[in-house]
Each structure stands twice: as C-alpha cells, then as structure tokens.
Design a protein that fits this description.
The chain is of the alpha+beta class. It folds into 3 domains: 9-125, no CATH class; 138-255, Jelly Rolls (Sandwich); 266-336, Phage tail protein beta-alpha-beta fold (3-Layer(bab) Sandwich), CATH 3.55.50. 28% of the residues lie in helices and 31% in strands. The strands form 3 sheets. Strands 1, 2, 3, 4, 5, 6, 7, 8, 9, 10, 11, 12 and 13 form a 13-stranded mixed sheet that branches. Strands 15-18-17 form a 3-stranded mixed sheet. Helix 1 crosses helix 3. It is globular and about 70 Å long. The N and C termini lie far apart (54 Å).
Length: 337
Amino acid sequence: MMAVPTPTDHDRAALDTQAHDWLVRLTSGRATTGDAQDFRRWCARSPQHAQAMAEATRLWDLTRPAAKAVAQRMPAMDVPPRAAIAVSRPPAFGRRQFLGAALAAGAAGFLVVRPPAGLWPGLSDMTADYRTGTGEQRRVVLTDAAAVVEMNTQTSLNLARGAEGEPPVLDMLGGEAQVLLDAARRTPFTMTVGGARLVAAAASRFNVRATGGEVCVTCFAGSVELRDGERVLVAGEAQQIRYGGRREAEVARAPDLATVGAWRERVLVFDDTPLAAVVDEINRYRPGRLIVTRAELGQRKVQARLRLDELPHVETLIAVSYGAKLTSLPAGIVLLG
C-alpha cells in the first residue's frame, strides 16, 4: 500500500499562503466562474490542499463571536483571539487523518456553493444569467420581456424562457434591482423572488430588494401584485410590499422613494439608522467585511449621505465619528469596537 507523503514545514507554509491568497481573491468582489472552478481544482489537488483551505476559512468562524451585533445569524466558537491570525498545521496523514481531509475537501467544495457569511459569491450566483459583483451596477435591456432592469451590487438574476408565445419570467436569486416596463407591453411582467411571484402591468416601475431572507418591493409608478399561494397583495405608487423571513406579507406606504432609489445615483442615504444596520448595508458594496463588536456602538444612530466612492475607507470615517477602535484582519475584515 502506497504511503501518503508527509508534507514538510515549507510545503505547509506554502499551502497556507496559497489558501489565504484564495480567500483574498474570493472576497475581492471580482471573483468569476473561472475562479470558482480553479478554486475547486486547487482544493482537489491533494488532501493537504483541502486541509489548508479548511483551516484558513476558519478565520471567518473565529471572528464571528467577536461580533455580538451580528452573532444572531452566525454560530459562536470559543477560540482565543490570536488564533484568528494563526493557521494550524496539518499533521502527517494516517488513515483517520486522510478521511478527515477527504471531508475537508467536501467542505471546501461546499464553500463554493454556500460561502461563510456571504463573503464571496456562491456558485448559483456565479452561474446566473445576469450578475453584478461587489460595488458593481449594471443596466440590462430584456428585449423579449420589454423591460429594462437596473441591477445594484451583488445581484443575481436568471431569465426563464416560457413556452412558445409566453413571456419570459425573471427570477431574482438575491440582491436589488429596479425594473422599468415599456408602456407598450401587451402582457403583464412576471418576476419570482423569495418564493413568491410578482406581477406588474405595462408602464410600471418598481424596486425589488432581496437580502437577509426578506424581500421589499417598492412601487414608483403603476402597480405591482404579490401572488403567494391564494393570497394577493397590490402595491400602488409610493407603496411597499414586504415579506419573507418571519415577516407576514403586508402593504404599507413607502417611507421615502428618493432614499429607496438613491443607489441608482451611486449614493447611500441613512436617516436615523442604527450603525449596525448601516454597516450591514455598506458591506454589500465593498470587499471584505466590517463587523461591529460592541452592541452599544451598533445602536448609535446615523444621519448620513455617502457616495459609493467613499466606502473603501469608510471604517476610518466611522472611527473618527463614533470613537470606534479598528482592528484589521486578513482578507479585508475589520472589527469596529
């Protein structure tokens, strides 16, 4: 029986460096389908490769307990803070260790499909018909659907072709987009998001945002129907429909149309918004991740108008404005305490 070669310290250090390089690339906001395929091939090269990647990705798990403000949706782990920077070395591979590495390889493949904390695009996002990366915006003209779709950051859409003579259906996997329908449309426009169906008439304009398991549909003009089973809700101009997660679907007046659509002008508007919610929104537009580590800091209210080109160094602005202490970690993770 052929023995599995034992990696030297030099080999292990090189694999650790390569694993961290992969994390940086995958969290850069510019990862492509090709990157995902190359990543999977790299992990499959040997058990040592898979183990190095599995150990490196623990960095995100180790930073989660520090972020009490977002810990409700992240599992806690009792690990010393210094371990967030260290990468443990894989031992010589006996039978049991080899099986563990095989599981690690499977876990590494899973990271492509469902990344930790959404730090890079999942496989379904990378293979979507239309996709925007972190901080990217895009305008798509759907000729067959007689619609224009303006896509915000981290948005993925698929266009499902219907049977002959039937209009296509737009499926939003996640993100945010504004849909403008041609006044000459002869049939309603249909879009699926969050497990429900949206139907809009010709000349309608509406904004759809699907993040964190919740969906918010804001109607700017015309009307939008939410069809969820036998239930139908209708939003007219300046009204919103919210649903998903633990929220019961409801129609309400939109708080401020200019604020909802400000992203189209590459601006974010916050009006008496808790800092924790502001940071969650900022994270959608910049590589890496900002994490608020003190609950009281996350509850501070923010009144601000930020241009997207200000976000790469927004942590400095937060530190100056709110006295937050900054701790920088690899792959663009910054703790705000």
